[in-house]
Amino acid sequence: MKTRFLMFMLCLCLVPAWGHAADGESLQENLQQEHRRADQREMEVRKLTEKAGQISTRISDIESDIGSLQSKVRAQEAVLAEMREKEHKARQDHYALENEKQRIVVELSGLMRTLWPVHLQGARSRFQGVDSWDAYDRRFNWLTDIYGATRAKFEEVRINSEKIARNLERQRILEEEAEAQLERVNSNKDRLLGKKHALRKNLRSIRKQRNDAETELGDILASIEELKYQLQSQKTKQFSLYKRVLPWPVQGRLVSGFNMKAKPPVRGLVISTAGTATVQSIFWGKVVHNDTLRGFGHVIILYHGYNYYSLYAFLSETYVRTGQEVEKDEPLGVVGYYPKANGPGLYFELRFHQKPINPKVWLTSNN
């Protein structure tokens, strides 16, 4: 009986000790879990910090590249301006030589009109009527002077013609050099534009900016406008002279037109088309954007010189690349699904600087 009592008391003493041991183990496990969570959060923060650092470094590198390219483009444009000045001087020299040629031709014609009748008369009469050596000498000297002056004018014509030929050759060489320099300038501007696009994308991702579509498009056009592209086609084809005669970018039915007073404003044309309709350039220009643009689907933007742009949106396929110069009526791509057209269609805009302008004022009256 005494033994049983002792065992019972022993059990009562041990129960609290077991409970404290269990609580200690639970607390230790919770602490370990918190430590693991803290370590995991610290690792995530370190990764995010590292990623932010990489993006910042990338942005700094891009900004550095942009600065370097801008300096290079400015230097190349200065060389191009000097070449253009030489071209202008060569053309002025050409006009002066042409005027000199006209003067020589007039003088030579006068000499020939004087000399030819005398020559014919001398050939027929063999100096009949000359009754003294003095008269003969005077006539001979006079004819000699006339012939000498005529030969001198022919020599002037020859020298002038050679100068004109050399001038034309110089103009050709200067034109080729200027075109090559312009190609180098535009190539670097293409790279610069790509860098600016990359910078904008990186800044947007790190700052988590949510610009609306119009603001983003404005940013793109502003970046392009800063570059002040010069196109080969600008020399002979000026966009502003083609008002009301530009072709439509695609064959289809006009769903809605330009209306800046609408809410929201309609800044271009909504055109419903067949499913495989080809989109064509309305004018000679340069592809300055060929990528998706929020709110517009896949977009091609062409720069036509003198701050004019055309925009072709909701394309399913494109045939051109950024930086490429295109011809008027050149295929750009194929239409895609356009919600406002309830099917395949194209959204088309024209802009002067960054301001939308009414395309119907510029396109032909029939589509």
* N→C terminal distance: 115 Å
Morphology call? elongated
The secondary-structure class comes to alpha+beta
Mean pLDDT over all positions: 76
For the report, how would you describe the main beta sheet?
A: 11 strands, antiparallel
Low-confidence stretches: 1-21, 207-211
Count structural domains: 2
CATH architecture of the largest domain: Orthogonal Bundle
Radius of gyration: 42 Å
The first-level CATH class of the largest domain is given as Mainly Alpha
Helical proportion, percent range: 55-70%
Could you please say which CATH topology of the largest domain applies here?
Helix Hairpins
- The ordered string of helix (H) and strand (E) elements is HHHEEEEEEEEEEE
- Beta-strand percent range: 15-25%
